[in-house]
Fold this sequence. Notes:
Layout: E1 8-9, E2 22-27, E3 30-35, E4 38-46, H1 47-58
Antiparallel strand pairs: 1-2, 2-3, 3-4
Amino acid sequence: MTDPITWQKSSFSGADDNQSCVELAGVDGEIKMRESDDPDIVVTTSRQKLAAFILGVKAGEFDHLI
């Protein structure tokens, strides 16, 4: 039996559990991502790749998308 995955969402998503947001979970040294409103589709990446992406977000590299 496998342990259930504990998903975490940003506190910026709001307190309402019905809010759509991106959720992350750490599983066996990898990072899994999903959208809360479509939880059956899960993307898996490495911690290093996610860290590089977050640095890009913080640097404003993706601001043109929002």
